[in-house]
Here is the input.
Amino acid sequence: MENKDSRRPWGFYENLIDANSHKVKRITVFPGKRLSLQSHDRRSEHWFIIDGEAIFTLNASEIRLGPGQAVDIGRGDRHRIENIGNRNLVFVEIQTGDYFGEDDIIRYEDDFGRV
Here is the structure.
C-alpha cells in the first residue's frame, strides 16, 4: 500500500479509501501546475471538483471546470487536468477497475520529465 500522503512536483494526493473494488483519492494541484497527459489500462476514474478552476483535457477535447462539476474518464482515455487559478485546485478521484497501482499510468506528455 502507498503512503497516505504522496507528494508530486505538481502538488500532492491523499489516499482516502484503498479497497479491492475501488480507490478514492483527494488530489491537490498547485496554481499553474498540471498533471501529465496520461491514460490507464486497468481502471476508469470519476473526478469531482471541490475547489479551484481547471482546464480538463479528455482525448481531443478541453473543458473548463469549477467547484461542483465532475467528469468521467474511461479506460484508455487520454486525460489531464491543469490548475488555471491562483489558489489550489482540489478534486476527489474515484477509481474503479481491477487494479489501482500507480504503475498503471501511461504518460504521453509531462512537464516534469517523467515520460
Summary: Residues 5-61+79-109 form a domain with the Jelly Rolls fold (CATH 2.60.120.10).
